[in-house]
Structure formats: C-alpha cells, structure tokens
Amino acid sequence: MPTNREPVRVVGLSGSLRPDSLTRRAVEIALRGATELGAEAELFDLRECRVACDGNSDDGAYPESVYRLRNAVKNANGLVLGTPEYHGSFSGVLKNALDLLGFEEVQSKMIGLIGVSGGPMGAIHALASLRTIGRHLHAWVVPHQAAIPFAGQAFDEEGNLKDAKLQERVMEVGRQVVKFGFLHHSAAAKKFLDAWVSATPNPGGEHEGLIW
Description:
The chain has helices spanning 22-36, 64-74, 92-99, 103-106, 124-136, 164-184, 187-198; strands at 9-14, 40-44, 78-84, 110-116, 140-148. The chain has 212 residues and is α/β, with parallel strands linked by helices.
C-alpha cells in the first residue's frame, strides 16, 4: 500500500459475547489480513458495551462505552462485522450495536462480513441480512465475504482455521476492506466524487416526446 497518506483504519465487531468466542477469533483473523496491508486495526469489545438501544439520542443518555463505540466507528475507514448465526439470522448483540450507530458513524465506510455457524450453511442468511443493513446505512459492503461452517471443529488451539484456504478467505475480507477503503478515500476518488456531485443533472426525463 502507498505510504504517503494516513493508514486506513479498520474496526472489528464480534457479535458474540462468549469468553472463548469463535466469532471473535474469525474477526481477529480478518483484522490480521488488514494489518498485512499496513492498516491500523482494532477489535472493539462489545462485552464492554452491553446496553439496549431505546431510541434515545440525547447526549449523555447512554453509558460512556456507547460513545466510545460510536467514536471508534466514526474515525474508521472500514469495519469487519462478524456474527454467529442464530435462528437463520445474525445475533442480537450485533443488531444492538448497529442500532446504536447511524449514518454519521457508518455512512461511506467499507464493510467486510464474516459469518460463523455450527452447521453446514456457514451463516449465509445472516450475511445476507447484514449486507442489507450496510446498504441502508449507506455503507459500501465489499463483494468478498467469508462463511465458516461447522465452526466447533474449524479452529485449532492457536485460534487459526485448520483449513488453510478458509483461513486465507477470512484474511481476504480484511484485506478487501483496506484496499477498497484506500481507493475510496484516495485523492483520485475524491476528485471523481467532486466532479460527480457538481455535474449537470441528467435532464432526459424533461424532454418532450420521450416515454419512460
């Protein structure tokens, strides 16, 4: 990666509060992929932010940990979201964390997704739901994602995946967040976006005789 700019910052969120969480291990692997490319990576521990979202946006209404979460995400270029699959969807822990965030923190961020499942499907339904949430928050969900099936047997004692190809796939999630994050925030990308915003709107729909 180029070194003439600030490094890309990536925050990981694990949607599992288990002390020896397999989801957390997977997110840590993805963050290692991010640091390989020179990114600054941080795993924000949601165990320190266990609070229900009640729709209250008043300053000071939530514990200090919620504002630390918001600041960590706001100051990042990208996120890695990891979730176990519960009843065909992602965890309530991760949903709660996302509900505590909004456009101000997440908009225009790159998001990489990892799903962990005890069965053969690898949390694919949970990943699809998270991809929808990313779009609603006006974020960019990277094309690559990783699904880890039969998670109880997938990791070794050091926290790595036994399947080298799957390990590589999870690391690639972190790498893609960094790559797309760098491109999106590069000077060339900003120049293109500025030109796009200032361009004359397409007047096609205003022409007489045209049927749409």
